[in-house]
Automatic annotation (TrEMBL):
Keywords carried by this UniProt record: Repeat
Keyword Repeat on entry: yes
Pfam families documented for this protein: NHL, TEN_NHL
TM annotation in the entry: none
InterPro entries per the UniProt record, alphabetical: 6-blade_b-propeller_TolB-like, NHL_repeat, TEN_NHL
Protein's recorded name: Teneurin NHL domain-containing protein
Domain Teneurin NHL: 106-165
Amino acid sequence: MRHLRSGRKIVGSILIICLAIASIIAMNPQANANAAGYGIISTIAGSGSYSYSGDGGDASLAKFSLPGSIAVDSGKNIYIGDTGNYRVRKIDASTNIVTTVAGTGESGYSGDGGLATAAALGRIDGIAIDAAGNLYIADGKNFRIRKVDAVSKIITTVAGTGGIRIFRRWRSGHGGQIELSLGDRRRRQRESLLCRLQ
């Protein structure tokens, strides 16, 4: 189990990142459970090898490199932090087509104020989606939280100056909250309001 990372629940299934085969798998605990109590497991993204390919095609044929985080929006679209490819990729819920929504494939820091697909990202430590569908990226190498606007697709930095400590925890909370822990400090992003919790 050390090669599996827990993910997000979606439509009765649990999404799991399988690092050993660079794939996203879905497990439905209730559907057709066998005598041992295991549910159906199916691969929904990734073709079993570390690489980059497949944008514009079916997610099951796409290749990922070190997929490290998953987020799901209200429309059940799946977002994957494709860490080794320095991209965030999206699987459309209705078509199963995969596309890049942030990152150029090159490690770096650039692009704020422009389209997210033209921006360079560092290490993707986590991703989250708020209630409005905005994408947040914990850009750990650059010590920043970056936001991709759901409508304009413009990327901006919403927290961090490039010199704060590494992110310890990162999660989506209830009501579209985004919560992260920076050392012994915690900040919470609720919609467009950024504040510090004492």
